[in-house]
Amino acid sequence: MKSDRLLAVLLLLQTRGRVPASELAERLEVSTRTVYRDIESLSAAGVPVYAERGRYGGIALLPGFRTDVTGMTSDEARALFILAAQGAHTALGLDDALGSALRKVMAALPAPHRPAAELTGRRILVDPDRWLSGPRPAVDLDELHTAVFTDLRLRIRYRHSGETRTRTYTVDPYGLVAKAGTWYLVADRRGAPQLFRADRVASAAVTDAPVRRRAGVELADVWQVLRRGVEERPAPVRVTARIRRDRLDLAVRILGNTLTGPPRTGEADEPAGDAEGAAEEAKKPGKEGEASRSADIPASGWAVLDLAYPVLSAVRQLLQFGDSVEVLDPPEARQVLARAAAAIANVYAADTPDPRGGVSPGD
Fold first, then answer.
1. Statement to judge: residues 209 and 113 lie in one domain
2. Which of 231, 265, 299 is the last residue of a domain?
3. So what's the pLDDT on residue 149?
4. Which has the higher per-residue pLDDT, 100 or 312?
5. CA–CA distance, 45 with 52 (Å, rounded to integer)
6. What is the pLDDT of residue 274?
């Protein structure tokens, strides 16, 4: 609505000072001509706004003019009380400041909107952590936070995944990102974007040198590039497996991004043949090892999963489902699981009772 857009223009000018008309148009998703018409409307309403032409021109308010805008809508008030990243405030030491700010916002709200805003804060909770993520290591964000807001280069000692020793880097930080409860430092190293997990930063020191960010590049831009690099990383190993349907929901939650599509549960996706036929086939010479594939459970008791792993050894993730999952393809993945299962069996073989009433030969 035009009234909302006029208010947005007024708040932007009051916050930013002089703003080019093209930037206002981009932020408000309208044409530059519409922006100039809005400026005329504000001027006609008594707002001291003016436009300057030229290379360094723009639209601005007369110096000293400010307005106290408290006319929030009901939805805007409710949105402020849904805290989508509560852990972020704790990590940054802003819990007290957040509580104080919300009390001030509540006092400034129009009286009819206060009950809805308060109820929203009590009825809606957003937990940013994933299920079964376990306790997270303590993260000291003080130095990282300082480097981000003082525009200074940062020297860090960093431990990469799978390594025990640390490496020392001098980086140019763009900012901090909290994703699924994990903090990341987004920075350039030698002019190229790189992601650093905050809990792997052994130490950090702010230098006296000014940051060297790429011109016109913001935190959101770098984050999108790095995020795509993680999510779109080619997976060289495609795996097809079947899982008992009573474990399917749990598997979907745990396997997460390794799934390349929804589970296939239609009859056309089940292993060929019925259970009785498969059981008879398994009794033939050389087929004894295949009896477990379908003799115990009818075909309708299975669902098919399509998975992708960055390396073949990662397929061992499926061992946690025991005999409720079976890899169908490729054969190399079946071999990896067979060797892993045999190694596990050897670990516990000494504790296996002798079926004849004695102890196992290893005792």
1. no
2. 231
3. 87
4. 312
5. 20
6. 43
Domain boundary among 171, 196, 231: 231
Q: In the structure encoding, which two tokens stand for residue 231, read together?
A: 């999510």
Domain with residue 44: its CATH number is 1.10.10.10
Mind listing the pLDDT tens digit for each residue in 71-115? 666 677 676 666 545 556 666 666 677 777 777 777 666 677 778
Residue 80 lies in domain: 74-123
Q: Which residues contact 69 (CB under 8 A, 6 or more apart)?
A: 7, 10, 11
Structure-token pair, residue 16: 């930013």
For the chain, give the mean pLDDT: 79
25 lies in the same domain as 102: no
What is the domain count for the chain? 4
Question: Which comes out higher in pLDDT, residue 176 or 359?
Answer: 176
Whole-prediction pTM? 0.56
Same-domain pairing of 148 and 187: yes
Structure tokens that stand for 76 in this block: 């805007």
Contacts for 81 with CB less than 8 Å, ≥ 6 apart: 102, 117, 118, 120, 121, 124
